[in-house]
C-alpha cells in the first residue's frame, strides 16, 4: 500500500470535498469534511454513532489504542452532523451504509472503509495526489502544525507519543524545518 499524503493546500481540500460530492456521493464528501475536522483514524470515524455525540462533543474509545477520546466539535462539523441527523433520523451510525437498508433482518452498519478508500483514491488519482483515508488525519495535523508551530499540540491532537513520528506522519520534512529556522529571524 502506497504512503498517502497530507493535503497542504486549502483550496485543494475544498476541491476534494467538491469532487467527492459530485463523483461519488454527498456522504463521501461529508466523510471527508468531518474527517478533516476530527482527525480520527478511519475506523473510529466510520464507527461514530449518534449516541457518541453529546451536544457539541464527541466521546469515544479509539479502536486501535483503546484510549478515550473527547473531541470538541467545531461549528463546521456540528453543522454537517446536524444535517445528516435531520436527513436520516432513524440511523444509528453517522455514516451508515445505505446498502444494507434493503436487506431484511440485517443490523445497520457503517459504510465500509473499502468504499471510502476507493472513492478517495479515485479523486486522488484525478488530482494526481496520493490520497487515502489517512489523508484526513494527516491533513488536520499538518495544518495545525503550520498554524501553531507547536508539535506538542499536534501530538496531543493525534494522540501520538513521539515528535519524530508526528513530524513524519504529517509530512514535515527536514528541509521544511531547516527553511523555517532560516526564514524566521528574531
UniProtKB/TrEMBL annotation:
- Residue ranges of every copy of the Tyr recombinase domain listed in the record: 37-173
Key words of the record = DNA integration, DNA recombination
- Keyword Signal, does the record have it? no
Q: Which domain of life is it from?
A: Bacteria
Pfam families attached to this UniProt entry: Phage_integrase
InterPro entries assigned? DNA_brk_join_enz, Integrase-like_cat_sf, Integrase_catalytic, Tyrosine_recombinase_XerCD
The organism named in the record is Amphritea atlantica
- Protein name per the record: Tyrosine-type recombinase/integrase
Check the UniProt entry and state the signal peptide residues, or none: none
